[in-house]
């Protein structure tokens, strides 16, 4: 008996692809993925500065990062489905338009409330990843699809690294935090122009959009991510933290029942339950967890004053960005094409497995060898490479097992899993560092700084995240057919 899933698995090989295609499509989609990664990461190093310049507490300023993530969880699956049904070009331009409005609000506002509102609108940019992958599947010739998707997906790592560097440069010497949002304005305007020129006007594949399901899923994900991101401030045993976790479980269960009974579901649960799709999504969450263990742990570690703590390098924000983060960011530029070639020649599963093994080695090095700058930088470069290549392999894994009309939604779920993993990683690292803080006396007054063992724990947990992703690649995914 032939099931929908059997047809979906065979669909990519049966796809003929366009007879001609614009050579701007791949650069445009990679640039859009870069933009969403830039917007996600650019505020992280600047949160203390924003709090200082707006005279607000660390708890309140944390919503500058949280608001974007919450919007992303709500709109990403909806945008993916809208692109499949009505055409990707139209939905990409809408997502970019919302992102531009949010960037302008954040750039022009002078209060924390206005800034949070702007960041919430910027969350629309997260929908660009599944839309970009869907565009590449439908616009590139079959022989170029896997390579193209790997290049676009690798822009996630490059965008995050670039954001850390850019923030360090733009905010040095207590520079105005508005500068980082003017950067996102300029980048978004460029993406709108490039996307409008590169993308052909094509109709979608048709079908219906389950708007009720989108609302329910968004509510469930917001109920999950809100306590994950704020639990370290509210308290993990606080009533609202536990209540929201329970609410998320109930709502997401209700979403599953709703989708099972729907004739036009937002997400086909049978596709998500497929062994390879499930393993890829779980691997995305574990790599997302490891990514934030690296970025947050390393950023704070290198800025620790060694004279006080006995560890760290006393780096300024600018030195952190240029000396420690920039090398890995620059390496991510050629890694996309290289990873794409390996995916085509050796299969996405092997590429994912190899990248996670590199990630394990890098986190082991960060845990054990962090007394000297050079060894720390080498480990960071390896970790950046692992993250970029791992995410480069995942869209190709998904496309092998979902039908063309489900490409956007399937990659939306993968993107959500990455967001959930990153949110959990961020919360765990912050909780570990805050929980070990010791007070040191300085000429400027007392300063609370984490212990060295807390950073080691964070790096070890990042290594465990890579290890779990490696196990999924080795045993959860079926062997490549190459």
From TrEMBL:
<feature type="transmembrane region" description="Helical">
    <location>
        <begin position="148"/>
        <end position="168"/>
    </location>
</feature>
<keyword id="KW-1133">Transmembrane helix</keyword>
<feature type="transmembrane region" description="Helical">
    <location>
        <begin position="180"/>
        <end position="199"/>
    </location>
</feature>
<dbReference type="InterPro" id="IPR011701">
    <property type="entry name" value="MFS"/>
</dbReference>
<keyword id="KW-0472">Membrane</keyword>
<keyword id="KW-0813">Transport</keyword>
<feature type="transmembrane region" description="Helical">
    <location>
        <begin position="91"/>
        <end position="108"/>
    </location>
</feature>
<dbReference type="GO" id="GO:0022857">
    <property type="term" value="F:transmembrane transporter activity"/>
</dbReference>
<feature type="transmembrane region" description="Helical">
    <location>
        <begin position="420"/>
        <end position="441"/>
    </location>
</feature>
<dbReference type="InterPro" id="IPR036259">
    <property type="entry name" value="MFS_trans_sf"/>
</dbReference>
<dbReference type="GO" id="GO:0005886">
    <property type="term" value="C:plasma membrane"/>
</dbReference>
<feature type="transmembrane region" description="Helical">
    <location>
        <begin position="241"/>
        <end position="258"/>
    </location>
</feature>
<feature type="transmembrane region" description="Helical">
    <location>
        <begin position="453"/>
        <end position="477"/>
    </location>
</feature>
<keyword id="KW-0812">Transmembrane</keyword>
<feature type="transmembrane region" description="Helical">
    <location>
        <begin position="278"/>
        <end position="302"/>
    </location>
</feature>
<feature type="transmembrane region" description="Helical">
    <location>
        <begin position="211"/>
        <end position="229"/>
    </location>
</feature>
<feature type="transmembrane region" description="Helical">
    <location>
        <begin position="322"/>
        <end position="344"/>
    </location>
</feature>
<feature type="transmembrane region" description="Helical">
    <location>
        <begin position="60"/>
        <end position="79"/>
    </location>
</feature>
<dbReference type="Pfam" id="PF07690">
    <property type="entry name" value="MFS_1"/>
</dbReference>
<feature type="transmembrane region" description="Helical">
    <location>
        <begin position="114"/>
        <end position="136"/>
    </location>
</feature>
<dbReference type="InterPro" id="IPR020846">
    <property type="entry name" value="MFS_dom"/>
</dbReference>
<feature type="domain" description="Major facilitator superfamily (MFS) profile">
    <location>
        <begin position="25"/>
        <end position="481"/>
    </location>
</feature>
<feature type="transmembrane region" description="Helical">
    <location>
        <begin position="376"/>
        <end position="399"/>
    </location>
</feature>
<feature type="transmembrane region" description="Helical">
    <location>
        <begin position="24"/>
        <end position="48"/>
    </location>
</feature>
<feature type="transmembrane region" description="Helical">
    <location>
        <begin position="351"/>
        <end position="370"/>
    </location>
</feature>
<protein>
    <submittedName>
        <fullName>MFS transporter</fullName>
    </submittedName>
</protein>
């Amino acid at each position: 008996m032939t099931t929908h899933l059997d047809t979906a698995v065979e669909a990519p090989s049966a796809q003929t692809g366009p007879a001609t295609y614009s050579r701007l499509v791949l650069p445009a989609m990679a640039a859009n993925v870069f933009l969403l990664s830039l917007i996600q990461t650019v505020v992280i190093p600047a949160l203390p500065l924003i709090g200082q310049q707006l005279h607000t507490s660390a708890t309140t300023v944390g919503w500058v990062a949280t608001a974007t993530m919450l919007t992303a969880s709500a709109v990403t699956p909806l945008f993916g489905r809208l692109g499949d049904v009505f055409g990707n070009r139209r939905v990409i331009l809408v997502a970019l338009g919302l992102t531009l409005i949010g960037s302008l609000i954040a750039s022009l506002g002078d209060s924390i409330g206005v800034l949070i509102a702007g960041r919430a609108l910027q969350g629309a940019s997260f929908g660009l990843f599944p839309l970009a992958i869907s565009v590449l599947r439908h616009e590139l010739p079959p022989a170029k699809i896997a390579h193209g998707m790997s290049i676009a997906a690798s822009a996630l790592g490059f965008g995050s690294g670039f954001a850390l560097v850019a923030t360090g440069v733009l905010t040095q010497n207590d520079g105005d935090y508005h500068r980082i949002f003017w950067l996102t304005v300029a980048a978004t305007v460029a993406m709108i122009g490039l996307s409008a020129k590169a993308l052909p006007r094509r109709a979608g594949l048709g079908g219906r959009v389950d708007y009720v399901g989108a609302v329910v899923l968004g509510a469930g994900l917001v109920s999950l991510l809100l306590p994950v991101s704020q639990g370290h401030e509210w308290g993990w045993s606080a009533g609202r933290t536990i209540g929201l976790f329970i609410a998320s479980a109930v709502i997401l269960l209700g979403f599953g029942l709703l989708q099972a009974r729907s004739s036009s579901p937002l997400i086909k649960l049978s596709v998500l339950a497929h062994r390879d799709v499930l393993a890829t999504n779980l691997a995305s969450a574990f790599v997302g967890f490891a990514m934030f263990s690296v970025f947050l742990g390393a950023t704070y570690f290198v800025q620790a004053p060694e004279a006080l703590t006995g560890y760290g390098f006393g780096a300024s924000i600018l030195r952190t960005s240029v000396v420690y983060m920039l090398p890995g960011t620059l390496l991510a530029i050629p890694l996309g094409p290289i990873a794409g070639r390996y995916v085509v020649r050796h299969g996405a599963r092997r590429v994912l497995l190899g990248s996670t093994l590199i990630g394990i080695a890098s986190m082991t090095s960060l845990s054990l060898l962090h007394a000297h700058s050079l060894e720390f930088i080498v480990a960071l470069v390896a970790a950046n490479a692992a993250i970029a290549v791992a995410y480069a392999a995942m869209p190709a894994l998904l496309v092998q097992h979902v039908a063309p009309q489900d490409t956007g939604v399937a990659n939306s779920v993968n993107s959500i899993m990455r967001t959930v993993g990153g949110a959990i990683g961020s919360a765990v690292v912050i909780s570990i560092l805050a929980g070990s803080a010791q007070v040191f006396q300085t000429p400027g007054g007392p300063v609370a700084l984490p212990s060295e063992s807390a950073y080691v724990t964070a790096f070890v947990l990042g290594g465990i995240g890579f290890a779990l992703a490696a196990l999924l690649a080795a045993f959860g995914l079926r062997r490549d057919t190459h």
